[in-house]
Amino acid sequence: MDFITQFHQSVSGRKMINMKAEPDILIPNIYTCQSTIQTNLLKLLAGGTCPIDYPFSFSFSPFTGFLFLYTLSGSGKLNCEHFSAIMTEQTGILFDCTHSFTLQTAVLPWKFKLFFINGNDWDSYHALSPYPIKPFSIPVHSAFHQNLSKLSGIPNQYSDYDAIIMHKALTDILCDLYLANIPAPTPSSSIPEYLVEMKNQFDYHYQMKFSLSSLENTLKINKYRLCREFSKFYGMPPLQYLNQKRIEIAKEMLLTTDYNIHEISSYIGYENTNHFINLFKKSTNLTPSAFKQTVLVEQSALHSPVQ
């Protein structure tokens, strides 16, 4: 069965918020190779740039392939049985479509690049990577963006030459995603491995819900011991470290995005916005709004010409 047939057959029980939204908006381009000799190369199946200015929500049953989505502006959500991810500006996600999922808008207009991909190397990547994979951030000047542009330039009917360009760009992107999701190995030290793992969970998956009891169950280490030893090596209790990490992410989002306080609170893992505001004020002595205004005023004064 070809990919497009699979794609259309997989749409099940979708909630149509807006009746003009059809799943084909996710596949503006359908890619086919003029030759069949590149069967084992990484390849695009369908996708492209999607500028969406109306709400949609599509639910998909499992089908073969991987979904790669990178948000240019606005935001959307990807929900599945194991997790829910909010994809904000300059963040992306790689998702295994053999799991059921729902894709929907969050903040409009939502502009994103979406590609459905296949190839043997994705299976290797999936085996090496943690599941579920959380949204990743890519620096503005990363070569990732150049490779993304190369994919956007691939014609619908592509040649053998295009297939090699496509494979190389996807391989480079795969490596970037892998490095973004897998923490770099730490030098040998006296820090126990389970503490390093716990810190990495906070650093790379801060949006998830954590408690000392859940960490105890996951790591099979007494929660009081975890708290005591984490404080010894990292200078503060684990949940305080997590809160500090979230506040640092919130500061960055306040200064670099247009998301409101509630959206930022939800993105970094706080469903209760008032709780987030109180934690932020405790950390900075300012509310999130006051922090943003203060920093922007200071930056404006810094760049103003001297009188």
UniProtKB/TrEMBL annotation:
Domain HTH araC/xylS-type, first and last residues per copy: 196-294
SMART domains in the cross-refs: HTH_ARAC (SM00342)
GO molecular function, one term: sequence-specific DNA binding
Residue spans crossing the bilayer: none
Gene3D superfamilies in alphabetical order: Homeodomain-like
Pfam families listed in its UniProt record: HTH_18 (PF12833)
Keyword Transcription regulation attached: yes
SUPFAM superfamilies: Homeodomain-like
InterPro entries tied to this protein: Homeodomain-like_sf (IPR009057), HTH_AraC (IPR018060), HTH_AraC-typ_CS (IPR018062)
Record keywords: DNA-binding, Transcription, Transcription regulation
Protein's name according to its UniProt entry: AraC-like DNA-binding protein
Lineage: Bacteria, Bacillati, Bacillota, Clostridia, Lachnospirales
